[in-house]
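Students often ask why we bother predicting the structure of a whole assembly rather than each chain alone. The short answer is interfaces. A chain on its own may look different once its partners are present, and contacts between molecules only exist in the joint model. In this exercise we take four input lines together and write out one structure for the complete complex. Read the inputs first and try to guess which parts will touch.
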Amino acid sequence: MSASYAYLGPEGTFTEVALRTLPETATRELVPMVSVPAALDAVRNGEVEAAFVPIENSVEGGITTTLDELVAGRPLMIYREVLLSITFALLVRPGTKLSEIKTVTAHPAAQPQVRNWLRNNLPDVLWESAASNADGARLVQEGRYDAAFAGEFAAARYGLVALETEIHDAENAQTRFVLVGRPARPAAPTGADKTSVVVWQRDDHPGALLELLQEFAVRGVNLMLLQSRPTGEGIGNYCFAIDAEGHISDRRVGEALMGLKRVYPQVRFLGSYPRAEVDPKEVRPPRAGMSDSEFSAASDWLARCQDGRF
Amino acid sequence: MSASYAYLGPEGTFTEVALRTLPETATRELVPMVSVPAALDAVRNGEVEAAFVPIENSVEGGITTTLDELVAGRPLMIYREVLLSITFALLVRPGTKLSEIKTVTAHPAAQPQVRNWLRNNLPDVLWESAASNADGARLVQEGRYDAAFAGEFAAARYGLVALETEIHDAENAQTRFVLVGRPARPAAPTGADKTSVVVWQRDDHPGALLELLQEFAVRGVNLMLLQSRPTGEGIGNYCFAIDAEGHISDRRVGEALMGLKRVYPQVRFLGSYPRAEVDPKEVRPPRAGMSDSEFSAASDWLARCQDGRF
Amino acid sequence: MSASYAYLGPEGTFTEVALRTLPETATRELVPMVSVPAALDAVRNGEVEAAFVPIENSVEGGITTTLDELVAGRPLMIYREVLLSITFALLVRPGTKLSEIKTVTAHPAAQPQVRNWLRNNLPDVLWESAASNADGARLVQEGRYDAAFAGEFAAARYGLVALETEIHDAENAQTRFVLVGRPARPAAPTGADKTSVVVWQRDDHPGALLELLQEFAVRGVNLMLLQSRPTGEGIGNYCFAIDAEGHISDRRVGEALMGLKRVYPQVRFLGSYPRAEVDPKEVRPPRAGMSDSEFSAASDWLARCQDGRF
Amino acid sequence: MSASYAYLGPEGTFTEVALRTLPETATRELVPMVSVPAALDAVRNGEVEAAFVPIENSVEGGITTTLDELVAGRPLMIYREVLLSITFALLVRPGTKLSEIKTVTAHPAAQPQVRNWLRNNLPDVLWESAASNADGARLVQEGRYDAAFAGEFAAARYGLVALETEIHDAENAQTRFVLVGRPARPAAPTGADKTSVVVWQRDDHPGALLELLQEFAVRGVNLMLLQSRPTGEGIGNYCFAIDAEGHISDRRVGEALMGLKRVYPQVRFLGSYPRAEVDPKEVRPPRAGMSDSEFSAASDWLARCQDGRF
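Now the answer. The structure tokens for the assembled complex follow.
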């Protein structure tokens, strides 16, 4: 295993920018991959130490794929997450004026973020989709389009200049990325952690999902994300990708996971890792009765009852 | 502590009959007490080893009292339960004919069991209540009433004869009794056990009881009895007396009890003891995922996840 | 039907005192009955207009009976409830001194209320049970016992005097009584109402009770009382007596009742009537989303969705 | 409004193939759009009658976008869904042999479907991403790549031939598309219908999602899909996209929707429409108590209770 990280390429995308916020990348080789599956396979095959891919709300695609890839195949584990605010620059060849732009390109997922800006500033422009935002920039460099939406950081790489920066529609302007490796002992809890699991439903009777959620609720474990995903074994067969607050070493989380495992034999643990968006000091404590010390106290009480000492 | 059992007296009642079904009574002194509280206080004070009292559906009163007494005061523990089918005999002085009966007596709680019989056989009789069914028999012996409803076994003691036996209305013709002692290690599980607890509610917001029940439901622990009882601290303050299937040493029951204890700080364990009404061979197994071996398997799985070995 | 009310006799008990707090009793004949079943049968048979009986936490017995009687047989309906604080007087024949009391009597259910007082004031007295507290007073009048615990109001009737009044142990010193009649349209809501129903369980699978409670919880209807009662059709067969906040004409209550009725085919409505213990001005409003106006607004919204007008 | 349907272009994609399975397309102009937002905006602006876009498990991107677009902006409604099995063909210029293929292209979302095939048949090929599968075919026509993965139907349009067909990895090989229009009265129920809504969470306390699901579960409405989606108003703010079995005119569905609306003031109805994957004859009936006739019966029962006729 080389000391390298794969990531969803090409170079010059938001994914690379997000990856470089991790300090350890200074000493790793960063390898762009053609797709999320390719990046994750490189981890599974031992070609790289880890892979860095978008997992939620990307403007570069790959989200659904990422989840489906983590759910299937040999087990992987999430070690880190990174949140990046996404804003676009309008990149042109030096000298191009706004009024001269007739064609514009970008990855299709960028469109919702720039739509309002386009309506207000370039209402008559022709949009064509590119395979990636970086590829769009390259196509502008080659003269095929007049302008591309991409990260401002892409300008230098492709010899372009930013006519406008900080373009983004109001909503969903953050993307979440994860660093994925082979299974190993999770990092110690920081006090602001997240645990990801995938649970396959047993059947589709009404209330099945409700029972699943009660495993968490009854232990006071807050859910941050819930996605049903088709399993590929016929329409109507779903698994649930779940992000829960807390770390697998928290007793409430551990008990909830064991509860899941008993009721839903097919559960895949995807990792416990620090939450990117919050400071541990700002994390709410677990609800009454759900701290590790309260678990210990209840355990002591049970032992006293079993011994008749009360 | 003497080797004696107190019971709800007087002698010659269904309670005594139920008590004598326990083999160990052959070597104990059996002490009738004037009331359930008196019987339980004798246990608390160490005057007797245990007390035997009705707890559900009695035809001799005492039910509500029993629960309230177990809930309050120094902790006690249930060690055994006995179910007794209740049928009445109509007891008269020798020589009395049915047509001569003008007055009849019994404990008021007997009335629902004999009402239909009275309507059909003695529609014009005058009913007066007695302090107990045995006391009613005594009053017939003394000539104060013509007939008494009591257990057939009471006839010999009071010099009466049974004009009719097996009298009971269709419904609720069983009474449940419990043998109560000071806290000690519960008997080992038999495979058909019951666990009794009392839980004090924290407040009366809608759904509070629902949360309580979810502690059991999520661990697959079936409830057999649920009673809300006023706590005496003002109207609207309740505690819940709960009988759950299983033994405190069953892992699903233990986890449910710990869950209760964390969320409802005031919980009183009342014992784990064999169920009187079922044969261990006929007990349904716990629902899928809730056996001790499945708890162990889930625990192993969690350890593997925590170690990254999957 | 005569303009008369039956009640659980005899005369001179707390039940009669509670009954006389209802203004309309001034113009009714009040008929003491030997038992709760007798009182309720008198209603069913049209002999009286209504019956007044204890239903919760009585010091005169009858509670379990009352519930069982309402649950079975021809339908009845609760129209009113009365709460009475129970305190005892120690009644003796004129001239008797405390130090001369060797024997004392009362209904067995009185014992828990006077136990502490007895321990502190008459530790060596002999207790014998009476069929009712009034009957105990009568037996003192006849000279059979030295003293009786009963309501202070009973002294005059039996030619006794109160050596001590306001005797009661701290807990459970209130009794709830209900006025029961044949089914008719419930009284209009007062803003502080209660609805009583009985629900027969369909089977005893784990979680059955949970589902029942969810019918209320999901509509924001708070439960005030929940009792499981054996149905008499064999051990393990229970019905649930439920008191819920609100009136059957409140939309949240109506929807919850319909939900119950669909899932549990055997439901018995026992009445909607004013809550005795609270002032309508102090009643909490229903939780967010559960007022009648919010039901109407949601209904309007649904109609707009069905019409495509949104 | 012209009689035209917009769809996610370009021409020659699976989306177009799926759209053409709708009989009414024979008489409509079909207009390819550059992106899902552009297609939906064309509906909102009245430029087209409806838009046809992928919504689940696409091999052409657009999924997340579709949901986000339906959730935000002026209301739209789903009228139809189409399921299409996705299999790829390997398209080359006439005369190209498999052994001559050095470069291959397709939309990135196609990669998971063809990965295994590539590993087995063209392990050393260079993959580059295209903006769409159709665009990849065009680039092969232009000579820029040796081969493209696309629908077999794309071959004729771009002067290519299929070297191999029916390529797909085992899983997730179906895509779901929806036909979206402006709000109007939904089509009548077919017996196998689906209702889509979006619900914004009120806050992120544990159990919030659980309460939401209970609104459905308590009315016996089965959920087919549940997605949490960030609302764009900061990390941790989610809405839930829900597909439920049944039609808004089914009483259980209507009551569940009203329940949602009361508790979660921000609910958006997205339509009731026929389920593509099942025959109405094979649809399970609603669970016991949840049919329209049982709703009616319960409603009648409530009316009788309110009138005192029982």
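Check your guess against this: The radius of gyration of chain D is 23 Å.
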